Amino acid sequence: MDTRKLIGDTFAEHFVEEWIAGWNEHDLEKILSHYTEDFSVDTPLAMKRLPETKGFIKGKDKIRAYWGKALENNPNLHFRLINICCGINCLAIYYESVSIQKQVVENLFFNNEMKVEKAIMMYSK
Questions:
Q1: Of 20, 38, 39, 70, whose CB count within 10 A is highest?
Q2: Which residues, at least 6 apart from 68, have a Cβ–Cβ distance to it below 8 Å?
Q3: Which SUPFAM superfamilies has this protein been placed in (predicted)?
Q4: Domain parsing of the chain, residue ranges
Q5: Which pTM was predicted?
Q6: CA of 4: how far to CAs of 7, 30, 108, 109, in Å?
Q7: Rounded to the nearest 5 degrees, what angle is found at the Cα of 48, between the Cα atoms of 107 and 73?
């Protein structure tokens, strides 16, 4: 069965609107509702803050703890959308993380149920 699917503009816009709202509202459960139970993230921030992870965290419970601490430590965290790029089973969210004054590209890979199973983050210099 072919599970490759082009992410459409309507889905992408709705998804990103909810995703950014969750982060800007600091609503961890709203954020996590978009992800599978065993999703993974690759992020240079985890490599910096939790060197033992080597930048890779897997599983909703571990990521909940990591993101929860990030939200707690960054009460001014706010994202501003720059653009969205759609691909096959994936989309990239290009945004500015206002609190750390960095631009970010977050690549999200979706399963058949349109839940994120993998996220890869990249930050500007």
A1: 39
A2: 28
A3: NTF2-like
A4: 9-123
A5: 0.93
A6: 9, 26, 14, 11
A7: 85
Query: What is the CATH T-level fold of the domain 9-123, as seen in this structure?
Result: Nuclear Transport Factor 2; Chain: A, (3.10.450)
> How far is the C-alpha of 98 from the C-alpha of 80, rounded, in Å?
7
Contacts of 120 (CB under 8 A, 6+ apart): 41, 42, 43, 106, 107
Count Cβ atoms below 10 Å from residue 113 Cβ, excluding itself: 7
What's the pLDDT tens digit per position in 4-22?
899 999 999 999 999 999 9
C-alpha to C-alpha distance for 61 and 123, rounded to whole angstroms: 24
